[in-house]
Design a protein that fits this description.
Strand order of the largest sheet: 3-2-1-4-5-6
Mean pLDDT: 78
Radius of gyration: 30 Å
Strand content: under 5%
Number of strands: 6
Distance between the termini: 100 Å
Low-confidence stretches: 172-177, 381-400, 590-599
Largest sheet: 6 strands, parallel
C-alpha cells in the first residue's frame, strides 16, 4: 500500500470491523477474525500491506500491555488459593510438552538452545483464544474450564522467564554476553523490584489528586511503556518489564482504575498484533512445503492433546472433561509469536524456520475452534465420570473467595457497611473516587481501590460479573443515579442497595429497581426514640411507636413512588398519610398520657 498512515489505519480498522463480527457470528472468535484479516491484507493475498514487520513491531505493544494486565491479576493471595491446579497441573503440562516438542525439534536439525526455546514456546497455549472459546461454549465454570484457566495462568508465568532467557541464550551462543551486560540486566531488575512499588504508588496518588482522567491515562501508559523500555534497554524483554510493573501494582489501591484505563488500548493493539501476525504468515512457504507444515501442525496438536489428556486424568477430571481440556489448550499461543521474533533477533532461529513456526502456530489457532466443535459433537454420548477432584475443589475454593459484594463510595455511609462485612469476614470490593479518602482509609488497614464506579470499565475491572450485590453509597445523588443505571444495564440480575439523599432521590432509585436507604432516616428514628423515652414513655412503647412509624413511612414512600411525577397527587397522598398516622397513634397517645399520672 502506497498511501500514508491515515489510509493504512482506515484499511486496518475496516478489516477488523468486517472480519471480527463475521467470525464471531460463526463461533470462530475474534482472534481468528484478526488473523484472517491480516492474511487477506498481507503481501501474499491482496497486498495492501507489504511491510508487515513494521506493523508487527508497533503492535507488540499490545502484548506488552497484555502482560501488564496479567501481572495486575497475579496477587500473592490469589496464587496461594489456586496453587495446586496452577503449579501442579500447569507445571506438569508445560514441562512435559516442552520436553516432548523440544525432543522432536532436536530430531529435526535444531540446536539444543533453539529447541529449548521453541519447544517451551510451543508448549504455551493461547490465553486469548482459550478463554474466549470457554466463554463462548459457557464452560468457564466447568471442571475443564477451571482447570484450563489454572494451566493458562501458569503458562503466563512461565512465559516471563522464557522471554528473559532468550537474549541470554542468544548472547552466550554468539559470545556477546559480558559481565557488564549481565550486571546491567540484574541492576535493572533490582531497580524495578525494590523501588517500583513506592515510586509507582506515589506517582498515581499525585496524579489522582488532579482529578483529570486524561492525565491518569497518560500516567498508566507511561508506567507500562517506561518499565518495558527500561528492561529492553538492559538487554531483557520489554514484556518482562511490563509484567513486573503489573505485579508491583497488583495490591495497589489504583489497580482497578489502571486496568480500566489500559484495557481499551490493550484490546485494540492486541487486535492489531494478530492482524500483523496474519500478514506475516508466509502462504508461499505453506504452498511450497505443505507436507512439512501439515506434519508440524499435527505434531503440535497431537503431542499437546495427549499430554493435556494425561494431566487432566491425573488430576482426576472425568474423561469427557479431560478430552475437552485437551481440545481447548492444544493450540499454540500468541506468546509463541513474540518468542519466535525474539529468537530470530538473537540468531537462535533462522528466517525459514521462523516462517515455518509462525505458520504452524497460526494454523493451529485457526483450526482449534473447528476441531473443538467437532469433538463436542463426538462427545454428545454420555461419558462416565469420576468424583470431584482435589484440583477442582481448589478452583471452587478460589471462586468462593472472589468477593460477591461491591461497595461504591467509602464515605461515612459506606464505611459502616464495610466495617460490618469485615467483622463477619465477608469479602467485598470497595471503590472510592476521592484519592484522599483512599489514602486515609488504607493507612488504617482498609482494603479499597481508587476508581469511579459510574464507569463501565472500572466495574468490569473490579469483577462486576461475579458481584451479586452492589451497595451504592456515593454522596453525590447524580453520581449515585448514574452508577445504579450503569449496574442495571450491565448486570441486570444483581441486587442493588443504594444510598438516597431524600424522598425524590429514593423514587428515582426505585424506578431502576434499586432498594433505597435514606441516609438520615435511621438515625432520625433513633433520636426520636430517645426523645420519647426522655419524656417518660416506656422504652418498649417508644420502640413500638418507632417501628410502626417506620412501616407507615415506607408504605407512604412506595405509594408516592407511583405518582411522584404528579405534584398534586403527592400532596394529597401526604395529607391522607398524615391523617392515617394520627389515627394510628390516637389510642397510644391516650395510654402514654395516662401512664405518668399512675406512677
Amino acid at each position: 500500500m502506497h498511501g500514508g498512515g491515515l489510509e493504512l489505519a482506515l484499511v486496518l480498522l475496516l478489516a477488523a470491523v468486517i472480519a471480527v463480527p463475521v467470525f464471531k457470528r460463526f463461533g470462530l472468535g475474534a482472534v481468528l477474525g484478526y488473523l484472517a484479516a491480516g492474511v487477506v491484507l498481507g503481501p501474499h493475498v491482496l497486498g495492501f500491506v507489504q511491510d508487515a514487520e513494521r506493523i508487527l513491531n508497533a503492535a507488540e505493544i499490545g502484548v506488552v500491555m497484555l502482560l501488564f494486565l496479567i501481572g495486575l491479576e497475579l496477587s500473592p493471595s490469589r496464587l496461594m488459593v489456586m496453587r495446586r491446579p496452577v503449579f501442579g497441573g500447569g507445571s506438569a503440562q508445560v514441562l512435559l510438552s516442552a520436553a516432548a516438542l523440544g525432543g522432536l525439534l532436536l530430531l529435526y536439525h535444531f540446536h539444543w538452545k533453539s529447541a529449548l526455546v521453541v519447544g517451551t514456546a510451543l508448549a504455551l497455549s493461547s490465553t486469548a483464544v482459550g478463554l474466549q472459546l470457554l466463554s463462548e461454549h459457557k464452560a468457564l465454570n466447568s471442571d475443564h474450564g477451571r482447570f484450563g484457566f489454572a494451566i493458562l495462568l501458569f503458562q503466563d508465568l512461565a512465559a516471563i522467564p522464557l522471554l528473559a532467557a532468550i537474549p541470554l541464550l542468544g548472547g552466550i551462543r554468539n559470545a556477546t554476553l559480558t559481565w557488564q551486560k549481565a550486571a546491567a540486566a540484574l541492576g535493572a531488575l533490582a531497580l524495578v523490584i525494590l523501588l517500583g512499588r513506592p515510586l509507582l504508588r506515589y506517582l498515581f496518588r499525585s496524579v489522582a489528586r488532579t482529578r483529570m482522567p486524561e492525565v491518569f491515562t497518560a500516567s498508566a501508559l507511561l508506567v507500562v511503556l517506561g518499565t518495558a523500555w527500561l528492561m529492553q534497554t538492559a538487554g531483557l524483554s520489554a514484556s518482562l518489564g511490563a509484567f513486573l510493573a503489573g505485579v508491583l501494582l497488583a495490591d495497589s489501591e489504583f489497580r482497578h482504575e489502571i486496568e480500566a484505563q489500559i484495557e481499551p488500548f490493550k484490546g485494540l493493539l492486541l487486535g492489531l498484533f494478530f492482524i500483523a501476525v496474519g500478514m506475516g504468515i508466509d502462504l508461499d512457504r505453506v504452498a511450497a512445503e505443505p507436507a512439512l507444515i501439515a506434519i508440524g501442525v499435527a505434531a503440535l496438536l497431537l503431542v499437546k492433546f495427549g499430554i493435556l489428556l494425561l494431566v487432566g486424568l491425573a488430576a482426576r477430571l472425568p474423561l469427557r472433561s479431560a478430552l475437552m481440556l485437551g481440545s481447548v489448550l492444544w493450540l499454540g499461543g500468541e506468546f509463541a509469536f513474540v518468542v519466535f521474533n525474539e529468537a530470530e533477533r538473537v540468531k537462535l532461529l533462522n528466517h525459514a524456520d521462523h516462517d515455518r513456526l509462525v505458520a504452524i502456530v497460526g494454523l493451529s489457532m485457526a483450526l482449534t475452534p473447528l476441531l473443538m466443535i467437532g469433538l463436542k459433537h463426538l462427545l454428545k454420548s454420555r461419558v462416565p465420570g469420576v468424583a470431584p477432584t482435589p484440583a477442582a475443589d481448589d478452583m471452587r475454593e478460589a471462586q468462593a473467595q472472589h468477593p460477591q459484594v461491591l461497595i461504591a463510595g467509602m464515605g461515612r455511609f459506606g464505611q459502616i457497611v464495610a466495617r460490618l462485612l469485615t467483622a463477619q469476614r465477608i469479602p467485598f470490593v470497595a471503590l472510592e473516587s476521592d484519592p484522599g479518602t483512599v489514602e486515609d482509609l488504607r493507612r488504617f488497614g482498609n482494603h479499597l481501590y481508587y476508581g469511579d464506579p459510574s464507569r463501565p470499565e472500572v466495574l468490569r475491572a473490579a469483577g462486576g460479573e461475579q458481584i451479586r450485590m452492589f451497595v451504592m453509597a456515593m454522596d453525590d445523588p447524580d453520581t449515585n443515579l448514574r452508577a445504579v443505571r450503569l449496574v442495571r444495564r450491565l448486570y441486570p440480575q444483581a441486587r442493588v442497595l443504594a444510598r438516597a439523599r431524600n424522598r425524590q432521590h429514593a423514587w428515582k432509585l426505585m424506578d431502576m429497581s434499586a432498594e433505597p436507604f435514606r441516609e438520615v432516616f435511621g438515625s432520625s428514628l433513633e433520636i426520636s426514640e430517645r426523645v420519647l423515652t426522655s419524656l417518660g414513655i416506656p422504652e418498649s412503647t417508644a420502640r413500638e411507636h418507632v417501628r410502626r412509624f417506620r412501616e407507615h413511612d415506607e408504605k407512604l414512600l412506595k405509594a408516592q413512588h407511583l405518582v411522584y411525577d404528579d405534584e398534586a397527587a403527592v400532596i394529597q397522598t401526604s395529607r391522607d398519610a398524615r391523617a392515617d398516622l394520627m389515627h394510628l397513634f390516637e389510642a397510644d397517645v391516650g395510654d402514654s398520657d395516662a401512664a405518668p399520672q399512675n406512677e
